[in-house]
Write a structure and sequence with these properties.
By secondary structure, the chain is of the alpha/beta class. The chain has 3 domains: 9-55 and 153-321, Rossmann fold, CATH 3.40.50.1100; 58-147, Rossmann fold; 326-403, 2-Layer Sandwich (Alpha-Beta Plaits). It has 17 helices and 14 strands. It has a 6-stranded mixed beta sheet with strand order 1-2-10-7-8-9, with helices on both faces. It is elongated and about 80 Å long. The termini are far apart. Its EC number is 4.3.1.19. GO terms for molecular function: L-serine ammonia-lyase activity; pyridoxal phosphate binding; threonine deaminase activity. Keywords: Lyase, Pyridoxal phosphate.
Amino acid sequence: MTNKPAVTFADIQAAAERLKDRIERTETHYSRSLSNITGADVWVKYENHHETGAFKERGALNRLLQLTDAEKKRGVIAASAGNHAQAVAHHARALGVPTTIVMPKGTPNVKVEQTRARGATIVIEGETYDDAYAHALKLGEERNLVFVHPFNDAGVIAGQGTAAIEMLEDAPEIDVLIVPIGGGGLIAGMGIAAKAIKPSIQIYGVEPESYPSFNGKRRGTNVSAGGQTIAEGIAVKKIGDLSFELADKLVEDVILVDEPGFEQAIALYVSAEKTVAEGAGAASLAALLSAPEKFKGRKVGIVLSGGNIDTRILASVLERSMVRQGRIAVLRFIGDDRPGILATVSRIIGDTGGNILQVAHHRMALHAPIKGVEFDIEIETRDMQHTQEIVDALIAAGYNARCL
């Protein structure tokens, strides 16, 4: 006789019924643009359309609804880099449950302020999620609070699994799911539900290269996890024991994504889908872009798991994307330090269709002649070929320009 798993499909179905009409039933849409770009048939689950902007509402609310009256009175505590924090605070306030959230240093300001605005008491502690987690456990014990774990909890995992039920109701033809992995709660819940509904479906996970916790554990290797990543929502050093146990046998493979990959996916969501994804939220698309050969011709469901990105970071990502595409470039050349040179150069750039964004000139550059000056001109163009046309026009006019 086998032991019953800690989370079953029946648990996820019960969670779906519990959450009905309490959270947003987010859309699953077929994306023609992403399908054309990747070579797969792509459906996107827009979990950024929850009120708090991320999928975490599913697990947090399911867990809170299972508290006893005595536990609700005592209050809850959680550790989170942002989305779990907002979800717990939002629904705990609606249920009248006092909430304390411990967040690590470096959590984006937008997430800190949105969590505070939802009525939670905020404690900033630790350099990483793991540091914040340890502090939250300590505070919870001292203050007799109920700890609401972001991923290693049966109630939370069951709640997250409801996303797969909705996704396969809306797009039953999907035969591959790509799911972000932080602590593993989402992929465990979605994997259990998806396999129960459609046993033939394949589940792929995604982790940042710098935080390969799930991948390392399933391979039995000691991995070095740490460092800065734009996907801070899945920057977890140690995968949850329960979530790993549930998910490991369900996951086909784990794709590791580098930082430019996350940036590319965020920018593509904006340009192709006209929607905003945070780094972790863009992980499924980043994996699809990183390994298109795995999914070409397949019917792929990707989860846009959250959209709570700092606006300054988003602006930087979009600008860097334009640089990578050759649509923003800095041209450097040495010219004579005489009146009218900038007007001449500007006319050449304008006549070839370029737009000047910034100009800097350096008279103290020692590699320039004493009567010369080094110019750096930042321009906006259509693409790399257009940039090269402008460089060629400047060279033809006697300015030995090059792209930095």
